[in-house]
């Protein structure tokens, strides 16, 4: 009798477990992830699940989205590639990898903006532009926004493996031949391209182009293509300035009087300049002088007087005739 009672109690326990666990299936009835379609005009994709969150983008009638999850009356969706995301520069290496253990992806260039996702140490980012102390990046995997449920219709369920993923730029994905060649590529800082000489731009463009031609299936192909576009645009601007100087010879040998901070130029080939003049923190002119030792004025605020001898580079070259330190 005692054994029957124990057996009956065990069966009752199992039935209760099955009965109370069964309703949990209700939470998966949407079949996440799934493909959805926007059913209204100018639907706001927001940084959070209520109308007080920042609007990231206005979606059009008929736009497709990938729905990842749901919270109350809001759907969480994968961010389209044209939505702007931002990360702090101080946690990104020169070649575009996260250096912090965990890095917030934000809706704007500043810590006051809402968080759209997180990146882990070693993960890559696709840098689009520099905005002060922040980088604007292409939305990485895991970055998401929210849409109110009334503005989205379900089309079909999809497998997680079918969701398009951004290119992963992990070193371990490189083949053994590619790795040392990539390590030899010169790095660039997109917010300092104005300081690069024309010759330096040409050298980097050639190196990036050769790498992409040698490794057409490289994990870095898309990132290098973006940087090549920036470099070629910078070079074209330089060439346009040269053409303008040729068409307007009066720009050369022009007298000039200007104030700024004098700095050493460093070792740069292809120019007779030895120093540069910075105004409000940005390089504006290259300098040389045949009668003044400009090294005596490095890091000093000065007013210089001279003539523009060369405008073929990004920064006109001034031959300094007189210099005066500003107290």
What portion of the residues fall into strands of 2 or more residues? 25-35%
Placed side by side, the strands forming the largest sheet appear as 11-5-4-1-12
Portion of residues in helices? 10-25%
Describe the global form. elongated
How many angstroms separate the termini?
105 Å
- Low-pLDDT windows of residues: 1-29, 166-174
State Rg. 29 Å
Class of secondary structure makeup:
alpha+beta
What value does the average pLDDT take?
77
Largest sheet: 5 strands, antiparallel
Order of helices and strands: HEEEEEEEEEEEEHHHEEEEE
Tally the helices: what do you get? 4
Number of strands: 17
Which key phrases capture this entry?
327 residues; alpha+beta; OB fold (Dihydrolipoamide Acetyltransferase, E2P); 4 helices; 21% helix; disordered N terminus
Give a description of the structure.
This protein is of the alpha+beta class. Among the domains are: 172-247; 250-325, OB fold (Dihydrolipoamide Acetyltransferase, E2P) (Beta Barrel), CATH 2.40.50.200. Helices cover 21% and strands 32% of the residues. It is built from four helices and 17 strands. The chain is elongated and about 80 Å long.
List the helices and strands and how they pair.
Blueprint: H1 2-21, E1 34-38, E2 43-46, E3 55-59, E4 64-71, E5 74-78, E6 85-88, E7 102-106, E8 115-120, E9 127-131, E10 134-137, E11 144-148, E12 152-157, H2 178-183, H3 198-214, H4 221-247, E13 254-264, E14 275-279, E15 282-288, E16 301-310, E17 317-325
Parallel strand pairs: 15-17
Antiparallel strand pairs: 1-4, 1-12, 2-3, 4-5, 5-11, 6-10, 7-8, 9-10, 13-14, 13-16, 14-15, 16-17
Helix pairs in contact: 3-4
């Amino acid at each position: 009798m005692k054994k029957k009672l124990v057996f009956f109690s065990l069966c009752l326990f199992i039935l209760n477990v099955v009965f109370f666990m069964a309703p949990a299936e209700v939470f998966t009835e949407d079949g996440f992830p799934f493909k959805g379609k926007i059913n209204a005009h100018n639907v706001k994709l927001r940084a959070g699940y209520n109308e007080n969150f920042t609007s990231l983008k206005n979606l059009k009638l008929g736009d497709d989205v990938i729905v990842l999850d749901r919270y109350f009356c809001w759907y969480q969706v994968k961010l389209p590639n044209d939505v702007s995301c931002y990360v702090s520069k101080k946690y990104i290496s020169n070649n575009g990898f996260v250096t912090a253990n965990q890095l917030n992806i934000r809706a704007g260039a500043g810590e006051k903006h809402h968080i759209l996702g997180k990146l882990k140490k070693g993960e890559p980012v696709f840098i689009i532009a520099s905005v002060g102390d922040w980088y604007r990046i292409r939305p990485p995997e895991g970055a998401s926004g929210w849409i109110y449920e009334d503005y989205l219709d379900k089309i079909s369920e999809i497998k997680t493996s079918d969701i398009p993923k951004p290119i992963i730029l992990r070193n371990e994905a490189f083949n053994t031949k590619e790795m040392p060649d990539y390590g030899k590529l010169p790095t660039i800082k997109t917010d300092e391209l104005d300081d690069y000489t024309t010759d330096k731009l040409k050298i980097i463009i050639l190196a990036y182009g050769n790498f992409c031609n040698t490794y057409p299936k490289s994990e870095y192909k898309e990132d290098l293509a973006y940087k090549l576009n920036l470099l070629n645009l910078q070079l074209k601007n330089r060439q346009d300035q040269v053409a303008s100087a040729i068409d307007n010879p009066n720009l050369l040998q022009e007298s000039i009087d200007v104030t700024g901070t004098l700095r050493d130029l460093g070792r740069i080939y292809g120019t007779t300049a030895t120093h540069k003049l910075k105004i409000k923190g940005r390089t504006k002119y290259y300098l040389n002088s045949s009668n003044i030792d400009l090294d005596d004025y490095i890091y000093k605020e000065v007013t210089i007087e001279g003539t523009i001898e060369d405008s073929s580079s990004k920064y006109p070259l001034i031959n300094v005739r007189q210099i005066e330190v500003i107290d």
